[in-house]
Amino acid sequence: MTETVLLALDTSTEFCSVALLAVANPPAGSSSGLSSGASSGSSSGSSSGSLIASADAYHEPRVWSRHESTGAVSSTRLLPAIRELFDEAGYALSACDAIAFGAGPGSFTGLRTATGVAQGLAFGLGCPVVPIGTLAACAESARRRDPSATRVLAALDARMDEVYWADYAWDDALQDWRAVRAAALDAPERIAAPDAPYTLAGNAAAAFGGRLAVAAGARVIDGEALPHALPIAFAALRAWRAGRAVPADQAAPEYVRDKVALTTAERLAAKAAQQMPDAAGEAVAASGRTRGKLGGQSEDRSNNQASGRPDNQPGGAQTSGRPGAQAHGQSSGDSGGDSNGDSSGHSSAQSSTQSSAPPNREPGERPQ
């Protein structure tokens, strides 16, 4: 009895994900369809114990996996994890029939890592590669977690305030996914909802909240249906059996986005937009201070006019050439040295006395 051994890799996210799948080949003329449960070998990280099932033993893959959070250093963990899986499963690397990898979209560095490792191993082994889109992997994961998820809108946070997304429908006749809308990049508000009840897979709903309008129409939101080597392996097995593997020299990432980062002008514009609320608040505060100052000056003029004093001579603040507003501000105690020789600081009492009778001098006349 022959079998297919398939290795799957994914480093499109902050996880280093590796899976090894081994399945007996079905007898000639029998169906090779795969349904929803699995026979799992021993593994660490995140392995599956109920990912694939079938009506007979020929269709039950055995799987081993590693799924570890490695951040930006997945490249240092990928090859050791592959060796661990083959040792654990008891297979030699040369037993591998094909190598599947998460082609993207996702982290540019991560996509290049998975593509490069898959391509290098495939060249050395003389076997083909099977590129699987990471959004298709989300759809595959959602259906294996919930067999009723036959229409899946996969949406992943693409950073830079955008979303990677695609719309998939399960085709019973093909026993595979059909892309209703191929992988695209859009603002969260611009994603189009499917025309049938759908599951929303991926982390975009958690990342964008109410801005992701399609979340409100989803029958189920599966935030755990994310890129992972296990669903990539199952999707790749169907692709392998359907003849969709490609030579190693054709392995290539699917970036979808054609720019890595914002330009300097875009970053400055974004920073300016973020600062606008602060600038607007400061303008309102400054306007309030100006109105308060003008209101105080107007009140001084009204009081002076009522008492018959010139506008530049507020009560109790007789100055030697100082502006009236300054003298008025000092009338509470530190203006005594300038108020008709009264150094005791009792300018408020003097102001009260002067306000009851107009001074015997013309406007603008200096005090004696």
From TrEMBL:
Gene Ontology molecular-function annotations: tRNA N(6)-L-threonylcarbamoyladenine synthase activity
Record bears the keyword Acyltransferase: yes
Cited InterPro entries: ATPase_NBD, Gcp-like_dom, T6A_TsaB
Taxonomic path: Bacteria, Pseudomonadati, Pseudomonadota, Betaproteobacteria, Burkholderiales
Range of residues in the leader sequence: none
Location of region: Disordered: 273-368
Species whose genome carries this gene: Paraburkholderia edwinii
Protein keywords: Acyltransferase, Transferase
Family matches, as Pfam families: TsaD (PF00814)
Annotated EC: 2.3.1.234
Taxonomy, superkingdom: Bacteria
The name this protein goes by in its record: tRNA (Adenosine(37)-N6)-threonylcarbamoyltransferase complex dimerization subunit type 1 TsaB
Domain Gcp-like stretches: 75-211
Composition-biased stretches (Low complexity): 324-333, 340-357
Cross-referenced CDD domains: ASKHA_NBD_TsaB
